Structures are given as C-alpha cells and as structure tokens.
UniProtKB/TrEMBL annotation:
Stretches assigned to the SH3b domain: 24-87
Organism phylogeny: Bacteria, Pseudomonadati, Thermodesulfobacteriota, Desulfovibrionia, Desulfovibrionales
Keyword annotations: Coiled coil, Membrane, Signal, Transmembrane, Transmembrane helix
Main location: membrane
NCBIfam families, per database record: SH3_and_anchor
Name by which UniProt lists this protein: SH3 domain protein
TM ranges: 192-211
The keyword Signal is annotated on this UniProt entry: yes
Subcellular location(s) of the protein: Membrane
Membrane protein topology class: Single-pass membrane protein
Coiled coil residues, start to end: 146-187
Species whose genome carries this gene: Desulfonatronum thiosulfatophilum
GO cellular component: membrane
Amino acid sequence: MKIIYWKLILIVAIVLLGAENLSARTVYVGERQEITQRTGPSTDHRVLKMLPTGARLTVLETNDGWLRVQGPDGTVGWVLQRFTSGELPSNLQLERLQQEYDQLRAASGGALDRVAELEASNTNLMDSLSEATSSLAALDEKYTTLAAEAANVIELKEQHDQAMQDLQQAEARIIRLSEENAELRSSEQLRWFLSGAGVVFGSWLFGFLMGRRRRRQPSSLRL
C-alpha cells in the first residue's frame, strides 16, 4: 500500500509540474526601447519599472491583452501583450550570435584560423598537384618520343662507326698510295739521271774518240 501511495504522489507531482510548465512560457520585450511593468492590467496602475527591449519575461497569467510576467530580476507585474514577442528581437539575436561566435573563436584557440590556413594550403597543394600532373604528362610524351627515336639513334651510331672505319681505311690507302707515288717518282728521277748521265758520257766518249782520230790522221799523211 505504501508503494502504491508514493507512486500516486509521484504521478500527481509530475502532472502538476507539467501543468505549471505548460502554463509558464517565455516572451521577450519587442522592438521598442523600453516598456512599462505595472502593478495591474491597465495603464491606470502604478509603474513598477521599465523593461528594456529583449528582456526575458516569464508569463504567469493573461488578462485581456495584458500579461502578468516575472522579469529578469524576479519582479512580478503586468505588461501589454502587444509589446512582447515570442522570439528575441533580431538585433539582439545578431548580437547574441556575434557574442557566441567570438566566444567560440576565442575558445577554439585559433582553430578557425588554422582551418583557413589548411584550406589555403590544400588549395596550393591542389594547384601543385595539377602542375605536377601536367609536367608528368609532358615527360611521358618526351619519353615516348625518345623511345621511338632510340632505334634511329642506334642506327645512326652504327652508320657513324662504319663511316669512321671507312675513313680510316681510305686514309691508310691514301698514305700507301702517297708512299708508292714517292717511290715511283724517286725511281723515275734516277732513270732520268742515269739517262742524262749516259748521254753526257756518250757525248764525251764520242768526242774523245773523234779527237784521237783527228790527231792520228796528220801523222799518216806525213809518212
């Protein structure tokens, strides 16, 4: 029985709390500089205080266009419902967002700046990768061209080597022919020398013999 009793009490408490939460709602002072909070639901009642725009109010009761609210400092009074809004004024929302942004930025320890730097670095890396890809494509094309021309290079080298060999052989033949030509010219000069010497000797011998003959003829006549 005690267990059932306490369960019933718990259920009633939950229901009451839920009902209180359902009846209590939050409103904000609208887009005005200030509004009055009064002791009762009319302009004839005394002003308790001035509430600034954006002030958070907890609604306790409604009455013919008036709201009985509890202000930020706990003061309870009445305000005109038309001067309130269910949402925070836009200018205050912007200020709150800016404050939250500044707080997050400060709490991040420069993480946002680091993210921006990383994004910039990533962009630079992407540009470098694109340039490297282009360079690699150009190198591949050059390699393909060189590979295609490699056979021609080998053939040209073989032709060059054969031409050098032919040139060396030609030079050897020229040297041999030059030596043979020199020998021929030497032998020809000797032959001409000997021929000339023979002619001279023959002329001298002929002259000598004719001289002796002439010397003999007078002695014969004297006999």
